[in-house]
Amino acid sequence: MNEFKSPIGVVGCYLENVGEFLQEFEENNVTTDGKVDKITIAAALTLMQESLNKYKESKLECEGKEVVIDFGDGPIATLLEGLFKSLGFEL
User: Which residue among 35, 42, 80, 91 is least enclosed by CB atoms within 10 Å?
Assistant: First the structure.
């Protein structure tokens, strides 16, 4: 039997996960220079990967759904998938 989750409970679940994620990322990857936060290109790529990971984790935790990246078919889809993988993304 599926457990009922109210919309407010689902939103709360996502907000908690996003808050934790951003705090952890900033503590480990952001340099502050006055009113400017700086991140390296490596940290930006890490942010993209960790965002995807957190989205997948939150979707499973908050709604019980798995996320699968579908690039589709064809040469452009194959090229894009290869590009992301060459940059170190775990899809």
Answer: 35
